[in-house]
């Protein structure tokens, strides 16, 4: 009686057969022999031009309302449409509007509270329905509706109303003068598709369009998205602008850095994102072109300087200590050795906005002798010979915490050693991303003296900032506050508030250069390296240009060579 | 459990006069024949000397000393194993990293064995409600895949523990965390084995005798029954060390292990991820050391299992 | 017997409750979903406050657990921040089959999120399990029959080495060698990542081709332990009296091995396989990450790192249920196979 072993083998055969059969719904599978170059299609039809992009993260949602993910936002130049896009110098180009609004042409009212946009003729969605000002009003209404759990309601929550005097004119009213107006209209949602859904369900949260936006207004149409695997965008035949040259964009999700490099060098991808600097030589030898594009982000140190003198190390509240830290870290060496000299040390928070970083700030130079002298002068001496300076019984011991990323951990070790050389003791902490940036996390609670992350002006290329506002200090009533440095500098506070209301660029520039100077003198922020987007372009792609804000702004011009 | 029919032993003159072999001696005899196990034991001793003895030649300060100008140098006379991404000497780091990896392996197993014995012994000996509750908890923990537990627990406690100074070294507090996590997610197997042993042993006469003479339950459990069930515990503990070291490498790969700059073989491997071909010395040495350690422990455990298990065929 | 199984089944229910509580408490304290909603920059304070309120994250842990368990359509919450709780909830709770919606993929039902990835993992894991079991059977039996031969020693050593290496290492190395280096040297090569090649499309041949590297990497570790296990069980069985009887009766060797010995040796293997199967759902977390295979293991990693409680709890609870069910199933099969086993009535 052969029960078991027969069962074993029969089961095994069944499983394997079912596997084969289950996959058999697909096309005639020409037996794929390893070694075939996967490009030449066997069928005699006209060759479709398909470009493969490699993203290291899966989108969470494609609806601009529900996602702030960079990987989701950059696709909007493919299938969605912004009022204006930004070119490779991060200058705005009108896209849906006829011209950029300004005070001169009346697009911006003198008091900076009313904006008028004129839409181009012939705009339409991919299902041939005209794109009108109603779509703008609908986008604003949906962003500010409490029944939609949108990722960010800004800047729509600052608008009091959006009017549509006619189909091609949009009038936007703000409660206060709004200087960062350039960040408006980063993506539209179609009123004719989503209004019925909103009326039926009371919310847009569960709409299928969020994950499968089949109706769009860009040069490409959303075709499909298999979560975790790939997404496809094909040409929009009803596009109101110039048709793109590439027929299909295939985005593949590869989460692991090493795997992404392997895929790129093996030719399995035409475009790579967020390349690490040490991988660049490998890619260039494999024939790829690596390009850096400033996007306003700089990696820098933020300091816990509690004006109320309650939280954090008293040492850090002393300006001399912060200046000493600035002089004791050899940032040039970090850029040269760890980042292979591909970036530079940012002297100002507005380093990638030369218009506002004017006059350009100068960096603190690496000067450990000077740092030592400064600390001695300020009264921080090592009275108990334990290697760490102290003053009034307080040891100069600081916690330095950041997230888990190899380059950050390397930098932490380097900085710890350099600061130890001037008598400052560092205690290193690392946290997972979503713990670090949590409202209940160590940074928000004031448990980390020196914080590090990559950031920039919140609405790049707009120079607006808000972290250092006194009103943003987290309290029991306002736990979501963004001033994790607990700093309340009245001069700084006044200037920050002022610049956010100045629609006149020249006036704003003057205010910001004052802020720039304060940042430098009081060392509220210390730049470590500029953090541009690093792209890897495969040999097949042509006419590729990037922008720091809308990377795929000229996607309609991209082309593929024959090979 | 089948009882094998044995022939009635006929005692020879020699056997009457020489004392019978104790369990230890018997085990040693069988163990000796297992060449791979001896090899494993020897290699392990060497590795311990490397990590702890090597510290006498290389100071910790030197191991942590970084100089970015010297980064990513291949093996040379100054740095026998090369330097890492910020110029630290890899040989020194493997020595100090080895200390942490081996200690994690050891202490995780201590935690794991302790928990496993306590839970298994109590469940097996007392039975009834105690057994029921303890086994439900064990099953609950078993039903969650270990890697998920590791990830979730690593994030739960992450970052909250400051540096600790112990045995003359300062290292990241996450070491204690990793020990607790690994120990806390692998005790269940041992608990089941110990429970099974106790269930069968507690019906034996020596237990009845002990109870009859009024020995306390505590003494019965730990002084009478436990020594008799030592075999599977020893084997499980030995193999547990290997598992702990591999688990440490695993969670380091996911970024949740011991945080740099404290080195362990696991997080050195993780740091070498992007340099597989451009700087092979970054991963080669820690990988080799992990391999040797785990391999020798596995050989050792295999040999112990054969030596201690009375039902094995290799005598 | 039936009563035993009914009792086991009922015992599984409080077990699932305990598991869900343990996991929920751990998950609650290990990540803030809102923290990562800002993309590359920080979440703005007004958005943070609003989202905390809208997603119900300002409620205490036990309230959130209750909502997860039995839903919140029997109570009202304050969605628009005016302080008045006037909106009825829409969740029905897991006990009524509503696993909730993902916080990261806003609005998408958890079961849909998991369901899209589950088949991919199952293909990979089942293939891997089949390869491992078949291979381990072959190697284990051969090894047992030729104990202490050169082959036995060689295989033992090789298996031990495979068993002792961290899996991510094997995966990265094999990808590097067979995909990148082979292609560079002009040899027939394997693909690097993903399930298929976009230029060719998602055909069976493509998927099978892309499965080779991940399945091999995953199998090496289990293969080693399974075959050792089979070898030792076979050795134990081959030493039994009834095998000696069969030999002395002059039965042909294959029949002795496969009919008599293997039948009895395979019992523990059934247990091991049966208990391993439900963990397939978790997928090989690390392998999927390296080979960019869109499965549930990667799903778990991605969503854990963004604090997506509903999806993570969904995956963990599904696995827990599967484990409980499979344990009972294994016991049934075990009892059916071995007539000596009788469970207490």
Give the oligomeric state of the chains in this entry, treating copies of one chain as homo and distinct chains as hetero: heterotrimer
Strand composition percent of chain A = 15-25%
Number of helices of chain B: 13
How would you write the strand order of the largest sheet of chain B?
A: 1-2
Strand element count of chain A = 21
Cα(first) to Cα(last) distance of chain B is 20 Å
- Spans of chain B of 5+ residues with little confidence (pLDDT < 50)? none
Please tally the helical runs of chain A, counting DSSP H or I stretches of 4 or more residues.
Answer: 14
- Main-sheet strand order of chain A equals 7-8-9-1-10-19-11
- Structural class estimated from helices and strands of chain B: mainly alpha
Blueprint (SSEs and pairs):
The complex is a heterotrimer of chains A (563), B (315) and C (345).
Chain A: H1 4-23, E1 50-55, H2 70-73, H3 76-79, E2 84-86, E3 92-94, E4 114-118, H4 133-144, E5 159-166, E6 169-174, H5 191-201, E7 220-226, E8 230-235, E9 248-253, H6 257-265, E10 271-273, H7 280-285, E11 289-293, E12 298-303, H8 319-328, H9 331-338, H10 368-377, E13 390-391, E14 394-395, E15 397-403, H11 406-420, E16 425-431, H12 433-436, E17 450-455, H13 490-499, H14 505-522, E18 525-530, E19 533-537, E20 541-542, E21 559-560
Parallel strand pairs in A: 1-9, 1-10, 15-16, 15-17
Antiparallel strand pairs in A: 2-3, 4-6, 5-6, 7-8, 8-9, 10-19, 11-19, 12-17, 12-18, 13-14, 20-21
Helix pairs in contact in A: 8-10, 13-14
Chain B: H1 13-17, H2 23-32, H3 35-53, H4 60-64, H5 90-126, H6 128-142, H7 146-157, E1 164-166, E2 169-171, H8 174-201, H9 205-212, H10 217-228, H11 230-253, H12 265-271, H13 281-308
Antiparallel strand pairs in B: 1-2
Helix pairs in contact in B: 2-13, 3-5, 3-13, 5-6, 5-8, 5-11, 5-13, 6-8, 7-8, 8-11, 9-10, 11-12, 11-13, 12-13
Chain C: H1 2-28, H2 45-54, H3 61-70, E1 76-77, E2 87-88, H4 110-145, H5 150-163, H6 167-184, H7 204-238, H8 241-249, H9 253-276, H10 285-290, H11 296-305, H12 309-337
Antiparallel strand pairs in C: 1-2
Helix pairs in contact in C: 1-12, 4-7, 4-12, 5-7, 6-7, 7-9, 9-12, 11-12
């Amino acid at each position: 009686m052969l029960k078991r072993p027969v069962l074993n083998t029969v089961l095994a055969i069944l499983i394997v057969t079912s596997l084969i059969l289950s996959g058999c719904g697909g096309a005639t599978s020409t037996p794929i022999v390893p070694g075939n170059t996967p490009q030449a299609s066997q069928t005699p039809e006209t060759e479709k031009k398909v470009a493969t992009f490699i993203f290291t993260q899966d989108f969470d949602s494609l609806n601009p309302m529900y996602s702030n993910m960079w990987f989701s936002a950059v696709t909007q130049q493919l299938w969605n449409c912004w009022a204006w896009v930004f070119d490779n110098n991060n200058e705005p180009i009108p896209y849906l509007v006829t011209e950029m609004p300004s005070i001169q042409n009346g697009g911006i009212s003198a008091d900076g509270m009313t904006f008028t946009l004129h839409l181009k003729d012939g705009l339409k969605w991919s299902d041939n329905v005209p794109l009108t000002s109603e779509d703008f009003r609908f986008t604003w209404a949906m962003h500010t509706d409490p029944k939609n759990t949108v990722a960010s309601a800004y800047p729509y929550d600052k608008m009091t109303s959006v009017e549509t005097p006619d189909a091609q004119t949009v009038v936007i009213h703000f409660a206060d003068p709004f200087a960062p107006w350039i960040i408006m209209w980063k993506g539209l949602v179609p009123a004719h598709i989503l209004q019925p859904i909103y009326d039926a369900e009371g919310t847009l949260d569960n709409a299928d369009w969020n994950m499968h936006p089949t109706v769009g207004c860009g040069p490409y149409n959303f075709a499909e998205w298999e979560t975790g695997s790939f997404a496809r965008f094909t040409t929009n035949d009803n596009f109101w602008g110039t048709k793109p040259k590439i027929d299909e964009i295939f985005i593949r999700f590869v989460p692991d850095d090493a795997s992404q490099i392997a895929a790129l060098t093996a030719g399995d991808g035409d475009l790579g994102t967020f390349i690490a600097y040490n991988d660049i030589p490998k890619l260039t030898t494999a024939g790829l072109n690596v390009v850096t594009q400033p996007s306003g982000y700089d990696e820098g140190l933020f300091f816990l300087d509690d004006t109320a003198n309650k939280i954090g190390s008293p040492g850090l509240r002393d300006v001399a200590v912060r200046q000493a830290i600035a002089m004791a870290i050899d940032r040039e060496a970090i850029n040269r050795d760890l980042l292979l000299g591909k970036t530079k040390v940012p002297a100002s928070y507005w380093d990638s906005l030369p218009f506002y970083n004017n006059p350009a700030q100068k960096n603190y130079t690496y000067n450990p002798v000077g740092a030592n002298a400064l600390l001695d002068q300020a009264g921080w001496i090592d009275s108990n010979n334990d290697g760490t300076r102290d003053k009034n019984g307080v040891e100069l011991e600081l916690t330095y915490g950041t997230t888990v990323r190899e380059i950050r951990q390397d930098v932490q070790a380097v900085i710890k050693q350099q600061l130890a050389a001037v008598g400052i003791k560092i205690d290193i902490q690392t946290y997972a991303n979503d713990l670090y940036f949590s409202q209940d996390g160590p940074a928000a609670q004031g448990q980390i003296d020196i914080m590090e992350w990559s950031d920039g002006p919140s609405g790049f290329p707009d120079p607006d900032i808000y972290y250092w506002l006194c009103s943003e200090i987290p309290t029991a009533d306002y736990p979501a506050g963004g001033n994790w440095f607990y700093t309340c500098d009245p001069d700084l506070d006044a200037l920050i508030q002022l610049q956010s209301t100045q629609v006149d660029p020249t006036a704003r520039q003057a205010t910001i250069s004052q802020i720039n100077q304060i940042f430098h003198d009081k060392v509220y922020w210390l730049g470590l390296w500029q953090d541009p987007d690093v792209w890897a372009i495969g040999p097949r792609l042509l006419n590729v240009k990037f922008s720091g804000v809308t990377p795929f702004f000229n996607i309609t011009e991209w082309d593929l060579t024959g090979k | 459990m089948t009882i094998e029919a044995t022939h009635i032993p006929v005692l020879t003159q020699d056997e009457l006069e020489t004392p019978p072999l104790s369990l230890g001696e018997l085990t040693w005899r069988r163990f000796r024949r297992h060449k791979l196990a001896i090899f494993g034991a020897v290699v392990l001793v060497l590795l311990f000397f490397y990590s702890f003895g090597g510290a006498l030649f290389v100071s910790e300060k030197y191991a942590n000393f970084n100089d970015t100008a010297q980064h990513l140098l291949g093996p040379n006379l100054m740095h026998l194993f090369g330097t890492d991404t910020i110029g630290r000497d890899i040989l020194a780091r493997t020595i100090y990293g080895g200390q942490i990896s081996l200690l994690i392996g050891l202490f995780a197993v201590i935690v794991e064995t302790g928990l496993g014995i306590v839970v298994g012994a109590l469940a097996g000996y007392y039975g009834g409600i105690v057994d029921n509750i303890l086994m439900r908890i064990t099953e609950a923990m078993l039903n969650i895949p270990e890697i998920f537990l590791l990830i979730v627990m690593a994030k739960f406690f992450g970052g909250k523990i400051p540096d600790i100074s112990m045995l003359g070294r300062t290292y990241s507090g996450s070491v204690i965390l990793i020990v607790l996590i690994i120990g806390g997610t692998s005790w269940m197997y041992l608990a089941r084995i110990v429970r099974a042993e106790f269930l069968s042993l507690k019906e034996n006469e020596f237990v009845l005798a002990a109870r009859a003479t009024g020995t306390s339950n505590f003494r019965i459990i730990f002084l009478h029954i436990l020594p008799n069930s030592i075999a599977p515990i020893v084997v499980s503990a030995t193999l547990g060390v290997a598992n702990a070291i591999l688990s440490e490498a695993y969670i380091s790969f996911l970024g949740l292990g011991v945080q740099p700059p404290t080195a362990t073989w696991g997080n050195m491997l993780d740091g070498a991820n992007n340099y597989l071909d451009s700087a092979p010395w970054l991963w080669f040495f820690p990988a080799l050391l992990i391999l040797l350690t785990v391999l020798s422990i596995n050989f050792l455990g295999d040999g112990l299992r054969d030596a201690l298990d009375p039902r094995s065929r290799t005598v | 017997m039936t009563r035993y199984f009914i009792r086991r089944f009922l015992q599984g229910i409080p077990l699932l409750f305990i598991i869900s509580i343990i996991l929920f408490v751990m998950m609650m304290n290990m990540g803030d979903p809102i923290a990562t909603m800002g993309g590359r920059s920080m979440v703005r304070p007004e958005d943070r406050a609003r989202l905390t309120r809208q997603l119900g994250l300002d409620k205490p842990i036990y309230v959130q657990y209750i909502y997860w368990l039995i839903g919140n359509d029997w109570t009202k919450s304050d969605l628009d921040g005016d302080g008045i709780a006037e909106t009825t909830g829409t969740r029905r709770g897991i006990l009524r089959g509503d696993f909730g919606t993902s916080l990261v993929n806003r609005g998408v039902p958890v079961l849909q999120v998991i369901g899209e990835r589950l088949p991919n993992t199952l293909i990979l894991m089942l293939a891997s399990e089949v390869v491992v079991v078949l291979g381990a059977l072959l190697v284990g039996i051969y090894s047992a029959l030729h104990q202490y031969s050169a082959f036995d020693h060689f295989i033992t050593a090789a298996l031990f080495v495979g068993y002792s290496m961290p899996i991510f290492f094997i995966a990265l190395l094999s990808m590097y060698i067979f995909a990148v280096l082979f292609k560079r040297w002009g040899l027939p090569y394997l693909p690097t990542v993903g399930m298929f090649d976009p230029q060719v499309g998602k055909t069976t041949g493509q998927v099978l081709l892309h499965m080779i590297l991940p399945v091999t990497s995953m199998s090496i570790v289990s293969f080693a332990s399974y075959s050792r296990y089979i070898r030792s069980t076979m050795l134990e069985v081959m030493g039994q009296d009834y095998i000696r009887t069969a030999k002395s009766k002059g039965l042909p060797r294959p029949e002795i091995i496969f009919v008599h010995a293997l039948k009895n040796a395979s019992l523990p293997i059934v247990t091991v396989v049966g208990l391993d199967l439900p963990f397939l759902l978790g997928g090989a977390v690390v392998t999927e990450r390296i080979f960019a295979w869109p499965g549930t293991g990667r799903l778990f990693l991605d969503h854990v790192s963004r604090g997506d409680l509903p999806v993570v709890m969904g995956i963990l609870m599904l696995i827990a249920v599967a484990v409980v069910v499979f344990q009972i199933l294994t016991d049934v099969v075990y009892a059916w196979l071995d007539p000596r086993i009788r469970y207490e009535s």
